[in-house]
Amino acid sequence: MGDSNQEGRRSVLKQTATLGIASLAGCFRSDTTMGSDGDNASKVASKDDWFENGAVTFIYDDGPLEDIQQAFPAHETYDAPASVGIVSNWIDRDDGNWMGFNDIKRLVDAGWEIASHTASHVALTSFELVEDILPGDSRIYPEGRGNHGFSYGDPIEVTDGEKSVQRTVVDSNTDDIGKYLELAEPITDPFTAEETVERYPESFVRHELFESQNALSEFSPTTLLAPYDVIDDRHLNLVREYYDGVFNVNFGTPVNELPFDPFDTNRSYFAERVNRETVYNDLRQIAEENLYGIVGAHTHLEVVTQERIAETLKWCDEFGIEVITFKNAISRKAAE
User: Fold this and answer.
1) Among 237, 276, 296, 333, which residue's beta carbon has the most beta carbons within 10 A?
2) Where in the cell is it found (predicted)?
């Protein structure tokens, strides 16, 4: 991987593809402020324009009924808004486990923010191959097979930056080598694992973003929650055309320094996969250093109870931390 050709190939894999969808051209965001470097001028909220004891956003994933049944009552007790990342294809789903439009309207009426979580909960990132592809192979082994391949019939793209092929996923499982995707047709060209990634084609990613935005249009979504807490630079560049920020670009800590960048945010959970002491100490740091925190939860999990949500909100109240939506945080522009 040390020669210039390989480095150039690696660089190409990180770039945004140039494929466009003319039919959607009028639907992309065009009201973002551009900085001198050509990127969105997205550094917002300096400490001079922030809350005295910091602020925290609660963001709930997916849109299960527990959001309205457990999270909503807890937040009402503290008169605190929250944000929810909605998988638009799951609204009013027949299995009865997900919120409907009336539930979402109730949240909006209470001051909650509705964010996109894509149309069908797809991972917005690329995964390196862990096995070479030989001509005739129809089974590939990307390191993130657990995040792609849930929906059979989805298209994927295999590329090393010089050549690309698109195929349709028909199965996914694990064999003696590892986790794999099974493709409808074999790949005719060889690909070297260390130089190749598997990802969704740009047209499919745009479809996911547009369909979600369109389905949620009555709630005016301006932000995105990335499924599986993963998103890479290629997909961030695409998301910028649709939304003003992403809740969870980096996962592991809820603490965001000021001024924070809504396209380089930190998020962690406050009830699942974390202990109370860690959450309490993170909140104390946010209050003492006047920072911005983003915390999340999946309310359908048993550990995410109404009591645990209320406890975390109580700590915010005791520390004097303002609970706000992500949209509100982004809107607090730094003083010129």
Assistant:
1) 296
2) Secreted
